[in-house]
């Protein structure tokens, strides 16, 4: 059923957009074809943000070009031009198109249900009151819904006007001009939290394929990226919180850590109603597996402890096996060397329980560290990789190598469902989760931890061998997260 509001154009400026859309409805797709390199790059990145099969609400959908390309399980498109929607319905009869103004509260109230993604692609430039328009969208959000805003940079306004004058760009009324700080400020006023901002398209032309190469590998670089034509903002509603979890699994991967097993149990705090501990032992040579079994039986009256042994190798394999056999709503990793104290795990759980973050990473670089806890070269490498990964992830990240990581099981399941995008690339287990969280648009936060010196066993990481692997991770992440 299509709902037609009593008044489509709510202001003289909106009337100008309406008349322009009506006049160009039948030629809009020809303009898209004329600028195919620009639109293909835009679609490519939007498909990176929005996975296939999602429930999508596209506000300002035009002829449905973007909505159809996202291949949603449920796609609802809104536009205020009857002529434009007539073209959209003919081209994409499987999608649901509604006639109305996205700033009309009565119209929005008639759209029922929630969506996984709410998209404003160039639409924000047409709004009369951006803050109030965004506030009306919360009704479409569940806890995991993401708002995606794409818009062109104000820096490109003279060139876009030149393109219009030369007949390379469709004529449009004057739009709102917003910078990145404007987006963040308005989103905050409208009760949204910005998760990521990305910039794309330094060259909006093919140029025999050269433009595509520049846009993939040069445009995302620091300093250069602020010169790009397109900006993309992903945000979440702060009004759509999840229910507080009541159960958690603390996963402790362990290899040759016999002397730390019982200590981990003794120092573990109680921080939720149902709490299990899962040891995944990695074929040790010092009797760690036997110690895990002994501790499990010795503390059976006080703790729910499970013990598994790896068939494969490496921490990444241990994390996957442990999480696959976990029952907690919140999944937590504690390294068996206990350089991050077990006593601090409750802080991580609280971040998830209170909705302050969706992927929580420990950072060892805030509090003073014990002597020998982190060698000088390790500290320098950590600082370097913190800068690099903050750029790659578009979120502040100070300590990628801290093993303590926490997320909800439902979010982990989403990472697993999209794991094919990255493949089996990570022997550490840390980056599989970090990259997966970034790809899934999770809110990443860090919790400062006290970093202690080892009291038993030897480090499992080689500075030089694994340092080379980390450099390879940087190149891999650039290709998968930036050069899209």
Report what the structure shows.
By secondary structure, the protein is of the alpha/beta class. It has two domains: 12-237, Vaccinia Virus protein VP39 (Rossmann fold, 3-Layer(aba) Sandwich); 247-482, Spore Coat Polysaccharide Biosynthesis Protein SpsA, Chain A (Alpha-Beta Complex), CATH 3.90.550.10. The chain contains 18 helices and 14 strands. The chain has helices at 12-24, 28-34, 36-49, 65-69, 82-91, 105-109, 130-135, 157-165, 180-189, 210-218, 261-267, 288-298, 315-324, 345-353, 376-393, 409-417, 430-439, 463-482; strands at residues 55-59, 74-79, 96-99, 115-121, 141-152, 192-200, 230-237, 247-254, 274-281, 304-309, 330-333, 359-363, 405-408, 444-448. The chain has a seven-stranded mixed sheet, sandwiched between helices. Strand 8, helix 11 and strand 9 (274-281) form a beta-alpha-beta unit. The longest helix has 20 residues, at 463-482. The protein is elongated, with a radius of gyration of 25 Å. The model is unreliable at 1-7 (pLDDT under 50).
Task: List key phrases describing it.
484 residues; alpha/beta; Rossmann fold; Spore Coat Polysaccharide Biosynthesis Protein SpsA, Chain A; 2 domains; 7-stranded mixed β-sheet
Topology:
Layout: H1 12-24, H2 28-34, H3 36-49, E1 55-59, H4 65-69, E2 74-79, H5 82-91, E3 96-99, H6 105-109, E4 115-121, H7 130-135, E5 141-152, H8 157-165, H9 180-189, E6 192-200, H10 210-218, E7 230-237, E8 247-254, H11 261-267, E9 274-281, H12 288-298, E10 304-309, H13 315-324, E11 330-333, H14 345-353, E12 359-363, H15 376-393, E13 405-408, H16 409-417, H17 430-439, E14 444-448, H18 463-482
Parallel strand pairs: 1-2, 1-4, 2-3, 4-5, 8-9, 8-11, 9-10, 12-14
Antiparallel strand pairs: 5-7, 6-7, 11-13, 12-13
Helix pairs in contact: 15-18, 16-17
